[in-house]
Amino acid sequence: MIAGTDLFPERLATRNPQGTPKWRPDAAQAFDPRPGEAQLTDITAQMPDWLNRWMANHRITLWGMADLRGFTTPQDAHGIGFPRALAFAIPMNPNIMAAIQDGPNQAYADEYARVNTRINQLSRALAADIQHQGWRAQPLAASVRSDPVQIKGDFPHKTAATRAGLGWVGRHCQLITRPFGSWVRLGTVFTDLALPCGPPVERHFCGKCRRCVEACPAKALRGQGWYPGLPREAILDVYACDRWKKTHYFQYHGGHNCGICSAVCPYGLKGLKKRPSPN
Prior knowledge:
By secondary structure, the chain is of the alpha+beta class. It has helices spanning 37-45, 49-57, 94-98, 106-132, 157-164, 211-215, 238-248, 260-263, 266-269; strands at residues 62-67, 84-91, 137-140, 168-169, 175-176, 184-191.
């Protein structure tokens, strides 16, 4: 998934809402290997019953609230932005993902479309239910290039996801989660619903791995490790990526699909045998 030119438009403040310093590339070892996971579980347990039931009924297991104060979000009909967003991840079929390490196929293109359709349906339904509770809400389309020149959407799903604590951004410019690796698609619903947020993930956990960088046929990945505020261009040559897909894989959604970099990611592969394929 490709989003905004400034892929992670993090606020300029040096401290996040919880008061902890923002991560610097030279300070990685100061963090616990799995920061925020226990806190994320605790926070979702603090969510209202109706929202926990909604997520359970729709089989959404990885979700959270993102604090977006200080970010420029899409605006509602009255021209007002949103201070928060509910972010969630829907896993792709792992067998399909594992099969595209040499390039996309029709099964992947169909799965990509299926999951995007489900995300859009879920996002619209969730926004409607939040509005029913008396709050503002607005869904973000799963995969729409509102700016085809800059190759970006209205807001980066990955920004909401990292701020909600769902995962980090890998060297392939995709969100990596602990349960599913990067074999996910993301949903975002902007809202002013007042709920606990975060904790945000503020560093990557790719170590020295460069499998995605080496596998990219377009040589579009620069190998840079992510941290909040890093521009998209430091990680990905989006134009090289786009050209390769349109030249070699145009038959799949007009050249919007590749997936090789995600398919080779060890975080997805290591969980392949541990989880059933999604319905």
